[in-house]
């Protein structure tokens, strides 16, 4: 049965998935799979260990923070569109 697992910090969507899913298709808090793939540098290939997935997620988190900081700086300089 699918459950609400967590809220993605980037897109603010609720992640609804099977709680006992394992492997590369599992959503790992705090980013959903979409944001992890969109902001990450490169997704680990199939057969990669979980530490590579975590390293990719850290990279995606850094890119999310950078994007948010640039958005705040832009709106501070030029106003909101």
List keywords for this structure.
81 residues; alpha+beta; flat
- Radius of gyration using CA atoms only: 15 Å
Overall tally of structural domains: 1
- What percent of residues are in strands? 5-15%
Task: List the secondary-structure elements in sequence, H or E.
Answer: EEHH
The biggest sheet, with number of strands, parallel, antiparallel or mixed sense and barrel status, is:
2 strands, antiparallel
Structural class: alpha+beta
Which residue ranges are poorly predicted, with pLDDT under 50 across at least 5 consecutive positions?
Answer: none
Helix content: 40-55%
The total count of strands amounts to 2
Explain this structure:
The model has no long low-confidence stretch (mean pLDDT 86). Helix 1 packs across helix 2. A two-stranded antiparallel sheet has the order 1-2. A hairpin with a 6-residue loop joins strand 1 and strand 2. 44% of the residues lie in helices and 11% in strands. The chain is of the alpha+beta class and 81 residues long. It is built from 2 helices and 2 strands; from the N terminus they run E-E-H-H. It has one domain (3-78).
């Amino acid at each position: 049965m699918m459950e609400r697992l967590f809220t993605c910090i980037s897109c603010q969507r609720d992640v609804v998935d099977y709680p006992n899913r394992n492997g590369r298709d599992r959503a790992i808090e705090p980013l959903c799979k979409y944001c992890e793939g969109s902001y990450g540098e490169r997704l680990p290939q199939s057969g990669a260990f979980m530490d590579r997935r975590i390293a990719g997620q850290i990279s995606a988190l850094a890119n999310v923070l950078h994007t948010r900081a640039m958005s705040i700086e832009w709106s501070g300089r030029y106003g909101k569109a």
